[in-house]
Amino acid sequence: MVVGSDISRYPNTPRPTCRGYLHKRTQSAILKGWRKRWFVLKHSGHLHYYKHKKDEGKCKPLEITKLEGAEIGVDTSLGKPFVFKCIPQSGSRIFYFLVSLQAINGVLTLQNHVWVDVTLHNTALPPLAIKNPECLGLLHQLDRGRDVWVQHYCILKDGCLYFYATLRSTPAQGGLYLQGYIVSEQALGSKRSVIELKPPSEEFKTFYLCAENMNENKRWITALKASINKWLPLHQAIQDFMNRPLEETRM
């Protein structure tokens, strides 16, 4: 799970709290499993959670956890991807959270996120109607099933790469959510320079792209890395939030 870094905030304006659904591992010895809950991270460093999103502001939170000094990181002990754990400084409880993700055609899709609605809206637009693209131009994608390179006109915007058949095609043929992907330049077969997009988990596909020449490849690699780096893993975002100087969290 990744959250957008708030790169446009004003210097004296506190960052917005994190809100969203997470699956929380139950602590009961009788009922074990994961329950979907609505979580809110406050500027004070306290994590509130509710049964439903609509309960925020209307009902008391089911629990409030102080995160100051907490240890937060990715967890692999439960055998599930996209799990992170939180160990508060006070108390002996360990919280495990599972992020809601699903794979559709090998592409990582985030649920319950307004950003997804924006990207889906963009797919219905002509390529040049997407405002302020971070990179655009022709790219060839390797179709490994047929061992051929298929040409697309591509638009990069806010961590999403949109694929069009041509410059004048509408709608987009599809989009690739790039959060967590690692971008590198590789040699592949007869091609000396290919863009490799390696996913954050083996559940998803590795993509190979190639521009018209090596300079174009480098231009795309630089843009792809910059676009991906706008996003942070959720556990890192929470940890960064907790590590900020006190004056940044004042209202």
TrEMBL record:
Record-linked PANTHER family: PDZ AND PLECKSTRIN HOMOLOGY DOMAINS 1, PHOSPHOINOSITOL 3-PHOSPHATE-BINDING PROTEIN
Official protein name in the record: PH domain-containing protein
PROSITE patterns registered for this protein in UniProt: PH_DOMAIN
SMART domains tied to this protein: PH
InterPro entries: PH-like_dom_sf, PH_domain
Residue span, PH domain: 15-229
One Pfam assignment: PH
